[in-house]
Amino acid sequence: MNKLVYSILALIVGGIVYRYRYPIVNAVLHIRPLQKWLVRSVMNVPFVRNTIISQVFR
Predict the structure, then answer these.
(1) Residue 57 phi/psi, 5° resolution?
(2) Nearest CA to 6 among 14, 22, 54, 44?
(3) Kindly report the CA angle at 17 between 1 and 28, in degrees rounded to 5?
(4) Phi, psi of 18 (to 5 degrees)
(5) Residues 55, 58: Cα–Cα separation, whole Å
(6) What is the model's pTM?
(7) In this predicted structure, what is the pLDDT of residue 36?
(8) Taking the chain (58 residues) in consecutive chunks of 10 residues, what is each chunk's mean pLDDT?
């Protein structure tokens, strides 16, 4: 019974997050430390870093 309740709750929360995903992302990116952490994390991925660097130095 608990698994059913948790599954339904997860679906509801997932639907809400999906519907309001852009305002949530904007709110998170307005927090400066989280923004810096996200940029550092993404730039540690070699494919992303190489793609961005090649676009900057065209």
Answers:
(1) -100, 35
(2) 14
(3) 130
(4) -65, -40
(5) 6
(6) 0.55
(7) 94
(8) 92 96 92 92 91 87
